[in-house]
From TrEMBL:
Transmembrane segments: none
Assigned protein family: Belongs to the pyrroline-5-carboxylate reductase family.
Pfam families, per database record: F420_oxidored
Domain Pyrroline-5-carboxylate reductase catalytic N-terminal intervals: 79-166
Lineage: Eukaryota, Metazoa, Chordata, Craniata, Vertebrata
UniProt xrefs under InterPro entries: NAD(P)-bd_dom_sf, P5C_Rdtase_cat_N
Protein name according to UniProt: Pyrroline-5-carboxylate reductase catalytic N-terminal domain-containing protein
Length: 361
């Protein structure tokens, strides 16, 4: 409930001079960007969570008595760290907690002012100012800091980053190629958003992100393939996300054939409520969708994929680029999977308009 809905004099807009009203659209744009950013980060964590859950990690240890190798189960859940406790960091934490959901004990926040995060401490989330400790613990680290703070943070954490730790940056002013140099790290995702001159009024300005993502119209507008709402996502993020999933599985030493099977099952129509009547052939990923045909031909069934440089994936053409541009079945299944993951099933009439082009780099 908006307590000031009918109290015009208490609204932000009432204190603005009439000649400045033309700038009010920036409020909607800012809120729309935050909704999209949190939605895409949440979806990515959901996929990681589902992959980890569907294939329990196995670690090999040596028995001191027999000298033989034994497999032991590792049931650790996905560990998520956030660097930055400002408005974006807080909204992201709330969204991940409620919508992935990430358990409180598997979420940590590092910020210069941990005393401002009492709401999260009461939930059992560790809040502190130790960036190096956080990146040494987390599987995924979200950078929600100011551009001016980023160089010092990178110097601080680069030696503690494991090669399989995924760094997800919301710092729009720092390109992914620069981040690679600052962090001496290649496992980096950085979404790029582009705003139209006229941003649609669907985003609002005050609604909580978690509540907004339960609105079918807003959720559809956040879909990576949708240009609705006047804010579009560079589709190279989608490529980077898939290769990040492959890297995540490679770090667990998972055979590539098993990875392809689980990715295909995610997009299987039997798992998507709205696609159960779909008569199209099942979606089945193959190795050559992600690597060259020559490499795929020489890849034995039990070998993992190589570790991919995500910064290169987001800047250059890949085999998956061709796949994305040619497969309309994938686009359709992806839209349904995206909405289903937030608890909203689309009918054919509700399917959002799909953008056929990719925004500029």
């Amino acid at each position: 409930m908006d307590l000031i809905e009918d109290l015009e004099t208490l609204k932000f807009e009432s204190g603005i001079h009439e000649e400045d009203h033309s700038w009010l659209y920036l409020l909607g744009r800012s809120h729309g960007l935050m909704i999209k950013a949190c939605a895409h980060a949440t979806f990515f964590c959901k996929l990681l969570h589902n992959l980890r859950k569907s294939v329990p990690e196995k670690r090999t240890s040596k028995c001191h008595l027999t000298g033989l190798c034994e497999e032991t189960q590792d049931d650790d859940a996905l560990k998520v760290g956030i660097i930055g406790g400002g408005h974006l960091g807080k909204q992201l934490a709330r969204t991940l907690l409620q919508l992935v959901p990430v358990p409180a004990e598997n979420l940590q926040i590092s910020t210069r002012r941990p005393e401002t995060l009492d709401e999260f401490k009461k939930l059992g989330i560790q809040c502190f100012y130790q960036n190096t400790s956080l990146v040494g613990w987390a599987n995924v680290v979200f950078l929600c800091c100011l551009p001016s703070q980023l160089p010092n943070i990178c110097v601080e954490i680069q030696t503690r980053l494991g090669k399989d730790c995924i760094v997800y940056s919301f710092v729009s002013a720092i390109p992914v190629s620069r981040l690679k140099l600052l962090l001496n790290h290649t496992n980096i995702l950085r979404p790029q958003y582009q705003c139209a001159e006229d941003v649609a009024h669907i985003w609002g300005a005050n609604e909580e992100i978690t509540a907004a993502l339960q609105d079918p119209a807003i959720l559809q507008a956040t879909c990576p393939y949708s240009p609705a709402g006047g804010i579009s996502l560079n589709i190279k993020w989608l490529e980077g996300m898939f290769y990040a999933l492959l890297n995540f599985c490679t770090a667990k030493d998972m055979p590539h054939s098993q990875v392809l099977q689980h990715l295909s099952e995610l997009f299987s129509s039997q798992h998507l409520e709205a696609c159960k009547e779909d008569k199209a052939a099942p979606l089945k990923f193959q190795a050559q969708d992600f690597v060259s045909k020559i490499y795929a031909k020489n890849l034995s069934q039990k070998r993992p994929f190589p570790l991919f440089d995500l910064t290169t994936v987001q800047l250059k053409e890949t085999p998956f680029s061709q796949y994305l541009s040619n497969s309309t079945t994938f686009q359709d299944r992806f839209i349904h999977l995206y909405c289903d993951s937030f608890g909203i099933s689309l009918t054919k009439e509700q399917e959002p308009e799909v953008s056929t082009g990719s925004p500029s780099q």
